[in-house]
């Protein structure tokens, strides 16, 4: 369920920039997020799931760095 929700959120946020989001079935709690072959997030390595605003920022920074994400954007003080 989390993978489908995350995919939906990414496609909704980046409808023109992302051509597709692929869900690959696996076992053992694998939950990796990759973009163009680059691993952005690994549940195993990070010890949990990425927060959606952080994940959107990571994707945005690679595919549309000038794009604003509204409430998902970083605070100016960061």
TrEMBL record:
SUPFAM superfamilies: Thioredoxin-like (SSF52833). Pfam families: Rdx. Keywords: Redox-active center. Transmembrane segments: none annotated. The keyword Transport does not apply. InterPro entries: Selenoprotein_Rdx-typ (IPR011893), Thioredoxin-like_sf (IPR036249). This is SelT/SelW/SelH family protein. It comes from Kribbella yunnanensis.
